[in-house]
Structures are given as C-alpha cells and as structure tokens.
Amino acid sequence: MDVLGDAIFDYQQGLYTEDIITKSSLDEEDVIPLTHLFRDFEAMPALEQKALNLCKGKVLDIGCGAGSHSLYLQEKGFEVTALDFSKGAVATTRLRGIENSIHSDILNYKENQFDTLLLLMNGIGLAGELKNLGGFLSHLKKLLKPGGQILLDSSDIIYMFDEDDDGGRWIPTHQEYYGEVTYTMSYKNIESEPFTWLYLDQNTLKRAANTNHFNCEIVSLGEHFDYLARLTLKK
Prior knowledge:
The chain has helices spanning 3-12, 34-37, 46-54, 68-75, 87-95, 133-142, 202-211; strands at 20-24, 29-32, 59-62, 80-84, 101-103, 114-119, 144-155, 180-187, 190-191, 195-198, 214-221, 226-233.
C-alpha cells in the first residue's frame, strides 16, 4: 500500500481530484494539499529555502516525496539523488526529470557518500521513535563524506498539549517522548497502516547529536515552533 505515492503520482498524471487526509494520535484530522508537495522554490517556507541555499557538493534528498527540493537543486547544477521508500514518489520524480532517484528505505541504503544529507519537511521524523534516533543518526554518519553536513527541519510540538494553571503541559504517560505521533493517511478511500513520526525539540536533538559525535547548530527559527538545524561531525 502506497497512499502517499499513489496521490503524488495521480497529481503528476493530471488525475488530481482530492487531497490526502491524515489522522493522528493527537486526535486531529488534517489535510496534506497535493499542490503543496509540488511547490516551487518561491512557494517554499523560509526554512526550506534557507536549507536549499546551504546545500553543498553531492546531495542526498532523503524522503524526497514528489521531488520538489531535488528538482530545484538539480536545476541549480547540483549532483542530487532523490531517495524515497514510496514507489509512486520515485516514479513521480523520474517523470519530473530528476536524473538520479532511488527507491529505498534510508536505513537500507549504503551505496554512496554525500556532502549534504537533506531531511526537509521534518524528515528526521523517519526515525519514528526517540529510541531509534541514535541508530538513525549513526547510519546517516556512514553516508557523509568528510566535512559533510546534515540539514534538517523539525518542530517542538509541546504547544499542542493542554496547559495547566502552573504553565506546565498535560503530556500522556504511555509514551517515551511527547514528540512521537502516530498517523494514518487516507486517499481515495484507501487508508495506510499506522506509522509513528518523530518531532524533536531543539534540546533533545542537541543531546542526541552530541551523543552520536555531531555538532548541532540551530541555523534558523521558523514562525511556529519550527527550526532548521545543521549537524556536522566532530573532529
């Protein structure tokens, strides 16, 4: 089942009739507009624009989706590889003219090394749960060339939990970390299996980076609890 890929591929083929619906463990239903996944550079959020401008050398776009970031970088002359676990997404990137695209889970990909690993639209969420973050970063480390960088954006979703009279937050006790959110996606009456996505506050990212021998620089802050970070290997 490839809910995201089916939706993206339909849009590319001119068969757009509806958007993706998401439901989460935060009891919220939301919509992913397919037009948002095909936006050009000018329509991207400032954090994404900043990240693309910071790219250097050979780039791996992890969780590339429809390939909008890869396409921009390719047009700027970068050697970029678009990678996604979704067959429909990878097929779409090829139809859009991206020269190098790979269908793979990032944790199974070991073939090359890169100067920049790009994890946009909260791509660090691919780690799923906080307990997986160390192993995830350890694998990314193997894909970096000497002097390479990881560029990622994420959000601190603490604001989504109810606040008590003392200014604290009511956080469920059944999960290790409040940034772990379980989702399902549906498109044309087909629903995905549940999957967990990880949102990281800055301090948690910094601690995980330090444990895995990365420097962590917060490059920019967004407008709504989001931020752009750059990880580089410690010397």
